[in-house]
Every structure is written in C-alpha cells, then in structure tokens.
Amino acid sequence: MDPTTGAGRSRVRRQLVHVGVAVLLAGGAVVAVGAATADDPTAVSSTDAAEPDLVRAVATNGREGYVHRSDLEPADLTPANPTEAVALQRAADEVATAAFVDTLAARLGVTIDVPVSDAVTAMQTAADQRRAGAGTVAGTAAGRRLFTALGLDANVLADRGDDATAEAVDAALDAAERANQRELPVYESDGRTRIGTFVVG
Question: 198 near 31, Cβ under 8 Å?
C-alpha cells in the first residue's frame, strides 16, 4: 500500500480484542468516576440529596450538583456478569480504536487497512508517547513502530514534517478518548433543574 495516496480512508478489520482503552489512554481528557477529592473535582461522590437516585457531581462549568444514578449507570452499560463485562469492554475498545484510525487516516490523507490488533498496538504506542510527554513523529523509533503497525511508510511520512504528523496523532488520540464519552445532565438537588453537564467515559 502506498501511504502517499488515498483519501483518508480506514478499515479496521473487526476482531474482538480486549485491550483496556481506559488504561491505554490514561492521562487524557476522559473523566473518571470515583470519590470526589480536591485533586479530582470532577469526580462524583455518594449523594446527600433527598432522592436516593441522585449522586453528587461537579459539572464541567464548575457548578456542584447531582446526576441521576440511572444516567450514570444505565442498564445497557451495566454488566450482569463477567462475560458481559468483557463484551462491553471489547465493544468500547473497538469504538475507540476505530476513532483513532479513522481520524489519523483523515488527517494524514492515507488509507489504513489493518487488523484491530495492529491498530491497538499503534494506539498504545501513541498513548505511551503522550503520557511520557513526547510527541509521536515519524522519524523516531516510536513513530516507526506506530506507522509500521498501521501499514504505513514512516520514511514517507517523515518527509511531510514532524509537526504535521505529531498533530495528526494527537488528534487521533483525542478522538479515541472522546469516542466512548457520555454527557450527563447535572441538576440541582431537586433532580429536575438542570445546571450543567458531567462527562463520563
């Protein structure tokens, strides 16, 4: 495949592979759910509101309020057993990986057609580089691993300029992080008056 041609298309071959996207992309913009602390003001905590379905949370606008537990833990995303948990994680992993590859292909103007396991390797390499504070560029060892996993010629991409390549990888990682995020309404303690949005994913 010639990475200099194509219209930014991608096709990740669908194979169910459990990769733990939340772990791969740790440190990004995904908001985690957990006990509220000064270090993590966006986290949710147990409710002190009158309605037991309400869980205290801090909206993206900084306002404190409540989310409905039924929104936070919807039935279709709450596994009933370990088998369902694995299936849900696999589905989320595929969504994030597809978003990574689609965005990267569009930004670089190339065609990417690889098994999902190779796409996961590329995404993990890029995520590791970002956590380390290093941009992923085609001329580095990490860049070669990433683009080789995607069936692309790192040398050709290097000729396009490191900044453009690094920006494309960053955009692809951002897309992967957003792929499984959900925006939940935040309410006053009455559970009806909306005051903001809480992001979880």
Answer: yes
Give per-residue pLDDT as tens, 62-83.
999 999 999 988 888 888 899 9
Q: Are 104 and 169 in contact (CB under 8 A)?
A: yes
d(C-alpha 146, C-alpha 152), whole Å = 9
Radius of gyration of the chain (CA): 19
Write down the residue that tokens 């309020």 correspond to.
65
Q: How far apart, in whole angstroms, are the C-alpha atoms of residue 34 and residue 22?
A: 14
Residue 103 CB neighbours (<10 A): 23
Neighbouring CB atoms inside 10 A of 178's CB total: 16
> Are 64 and 58 in contact, with CB atoms under 8 Å apart?
yes
Tell me the pLDDT tens digit for each residue of 101-149. Answer: 999 999 999 899 999 889 988 898 888 888 887 766 666 777 888 888 8
User: How far apart, in whole angstroms, are the C-alpha atoms of residue 64 and residue 35?
Assistant: 14
User: For the CA atoms of 20, 21, 23, 26, what is the dihedral angle to 10 degrees?
Assistant: -170
Q: What is the dihedral of CA 44, 47, 48, 52, to 10 degrees?
A: 160
The whole-angstrom separation of Cα 78 and Cα 59 is 23
What lies within 8 Å, CB to CB, of 41 at 6+ separation is: 58
